What we know:
Blueprint: H1 6-14, H2 21-38, H3 44-61, H4 66-91, H5 98-101, H6 121-144, H7 147-150, E1 156-160, H8 164-174, E2 180-184, H9 192-201, E3 205-209, H10 214-217, E4 223-227, E5 230-231, E6 237-239, H11 243-252, E7 257-260, E8 276-278, E9 296-298, E10 301-303, E11 310-312, E12 317-318, H12 323-330
Parallel strand pairs: 1-2, 1-4, 2-3, 4-7, 7-11
Antiparallel strand pairs: 5-6, 6-10, 8-9, 11-12
Amino acid sequence: MAQLSEREFIDKLRFEKYDTEQAKAEESLYLMECIVGSVHWKTGSDLLNLLRNVGTSVQAKMPWETTPCNMVQRVIKIVIDEYNTLRGENQGVEYPSLSQSMLVDPACGDLPKCTEVIPELQDRVLEAIAEQKAEIEQSQELIAAQGVSKIHNDEVIMTCGMCPLVLAFLTKAAKQRKFHVIVAECAPKYDGHPMAKALCTAGIQTTLIQDSAVFPIMSRVNKVIIGTKTVVSNGGIKTFVGAASLASAAKFYSVPLYVCTPTYKFSLMGCEEISHESSTSIIPKGTKFSPSVNTALTKLDYVPPENVTSFITNNRGIAPSYVYRQLSELYHPTSYDL
């Protein structure tokens, strides 16, 4: 396989060459693998600086692309952990446990100094990256396998938009359960249309509704199951447009809302960084507007943690209040600020 450069990767992100977040995560790890295996570096600190530069570059040019930054931060933690392990094996030094490392102040922004040259570090990091790639590849299957335990016969499930992970989750459950799925069409992109078609093809009873019908129909729903683009640090989610009103309706009627998400979507970013983009997709074709009229289409909706019941991940079910602990397990404290 050809080597992937940082510039090529960012260009692919900019021109939306990746269909799913999983593809972005896998390609991000491949870029990290190329850096670890090919770029000339001597010490752990040299490698950490190279990795951090990639994350900083992606974050500066496309702040809404959280998955690549998540993978960079995950690999940074791998490098630090492997360096400490190898150094401890060589010198018989005992290094801080997870609970102790959580006491490090992330605001300092300085990565640990890994200045010793350890020849085995490269192989150990590459092995850990390979394990991360295997985990990402299996994440959808592991989440979908939980569908049977979450969905029961004759239930009414509501979802919104097109999410391959939710589709796999519902399709897997439909092999042993009979239930009805209501899909909101998710204007103005109408991602709910292909979702409804895919569910019908899988033999699941499906009803497609307008977004404005979500609130009156919610009283008949047993569960809401959606996907997400990012799980932010406070336990909220940034997901497709329309999810915020869906979640608010579910909370009003006390309907549980489950979010299917692999752990690589757990991010350290804050909830206030909502991205917008200029777009003409909300203007009917053939309609002419004055050049002075600006159109703005929200790229993502934010759903606060109090509107989320639970996250269904490839590891286990996680409550929104537990997200902070999950982040401490996934990322090193000093990599919180790329």
